[in-house]
Amino acid sequence: MIWDSVGNFFAMGGYALYVWSSFGMCALVLIAELVGISMRHQAIVKRLQYEIRAEKFDQEGMK
Amino acid sequence: MNWFSFSSPATFYPLAGKLIPLFWVLATLLGVAGLWISFFVAPADAVQGQGYRIIFVHVPASWMSMFIYMVMAAWAAIGLIFNTRLSAMMAQALAPTGALMAFLSLWTGAFWGKPMWGAWWVWDARLTSELILMFLFLGFMALQASIDDARRADKAGAILALVGVVNVPIIYFSVKWWNTLHQGSSVSMTKAPAMAHTMLWGMLLMALCFWMYSIAIALMRVRVIILERESHSDWVKNLKALQS
Fold first, then answer.
1. pLDDT in tens, A12-45
2. How far is A48 from chain B (nearest CA, A)?
């Protein structure tokens, strides 16, 4: 093992700010992109479901 | 098997849906292995100590930003030549991921440059051309978003994407053509890599992870774009997921 303690690992030999800012931003951006697309997907699915229901309602009339 | 059938959004939509989980599994496995090597196997660098570990995200993000641009431009060109809707949608789906990869490349580069060079940013050929790449992605997205007619937006975007291709070799060879502060490439096709094997493996696994991530996310986005743009077609209206 190249780290002798957990503290040493997080200290990154004095480069903690730089290493963790880099990896942290990558994690943040990749997760945000995934969440963003999932929300956009849900929005279009909801809109289409609504439109399809409205169209059916138009054709069949109130039953 | 008729491969051309997949150029129809109606056939591609369910296929992409089946492929997405596969690419997520690959991205996760490669990411776990890559991070393990990046932090627990690869030794400290002789010159840069632990600070060099930024390489494990910086290089993959930079590679992907250039690679995604090439793929995006290729799809845009196919869309322009054959007038296929799906190709243009693929280009559109790749642009935001490419812009994010270019941003990550610049961000991690700044956080690497500061401790090693003493500056967050310098107007060096490598950094400047990567910044231009990010603006090309953003410009492509802005141009497409500004034109209401989707097919015309595809054409305008495709021309912009194709003109911008010239920037990719400039980024790649900038460290050779100009006297840059940015170091030359540590990995190339022609010579043995100038780094420890474990470092190289960590970098390659992380690059593959970013690659699989990009495919998964681009497929997810292209499915959303298909639904948005084909919302008036019968096959979309008959999708099971949309019946309530």
1. 999 999 999 999 999 999 999 999 999 999 999 9
2. 7
Q: Quote the number of domains for chain B.
A: 1
Residue B192 placed within a domain: no
- Complete DSSP assignment for A1-16: ---SSHHHHHHGGGTH
Cβ pairs A/B, distance under 8 A = 96
Mutate to test the interface with A, among B47, B53, B55 (most CBs of A within 10 A): B53
Predicted complex ipTM: 0.90
**Does B7 map to a domain?**
no
Give B55 or B240, the one with higher predicted confidence.
B55
B146/chain A closest Cα distance in angstroms: 19
Does residue A13 lie within any of the structural domains?
A: no
Q: B61: domain range? A: 19-41+53-183+198-236
Q: Which amino acid is at B122?
A: V
* Alpha carbon separation from B142 to A5, A43, B42, B53, B162 (Å, rounded): 48, 21, 41, 34, 16
The interaxial angle of helices B55-82 and B85-117, nearest 10 deg, is: 160
**B105-120 per-position pLDDT tens digit:** 999 999 999 999 999 9
